[in-house]
């Protein structure tokens, strides 16, 4: 199993009217692949926020492998 860092990102508009992406939460998971990592992280995100759908608080998910080569 590999280790992944999953970030939940939201696009917001600043006071100056500029769009920027803000990280709503980072979740670390162990999974077989990036698809499984996203699914596990979505479940954790929903449990932590006590919501049914992660997309209520984020626009997209970024999954990155977190394993370091030896």
List strands and helices in order, with pairings.
Elements: E1 2-13, E2 19-31, H1 34-49, E3 60-65
Antiparallel strand pairs: 1-2, 1-3
Helix content bin = 10-25%
Poorly predicted spans: none
Average residue pLDDT: 93
DSSP strand tally: 3
Radius of gyration (Å)? 13 Å
3D shape: globular
Structural class: alpha+beta
Protein architecture, described:
Helix content is 23%, strand content 44%. It has one helix at residues 34-49, and strands at residues 2-13, 19-31, 60-65. Strand 1 (2-13) and strand 2 (19-31) form a beta hairpin. A three-stranded antiparallel beta sheet has the order 2-1-3. The radius of gyration is 13 Å and the shape is globular.
Name the features.
70 residues; alpha+beta; globular
Summarize the structure.
The protein has 70 residues and is an alpha+beta fold. Helices cover 23% and strands 44% of the residues. A hairpin with a 5-residue loop joins strand 1 and strand 2 (19-31).
């Amino acid at each position: 199993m590999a280790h992944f860092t999953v970030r939940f990102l939201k696009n917001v508009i600043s006071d100056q009217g500029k769009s920027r992406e803000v990280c709503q939460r980072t979740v670390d998971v162990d999974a077989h692949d990036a698809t499984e990592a996203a699914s596990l992280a979505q479940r954790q995100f929903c449990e932590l926020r006590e919501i049914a759908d992660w997309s209520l608080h984020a626009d997209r998910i970024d999954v990155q492998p977190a394993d370091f080569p030896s």
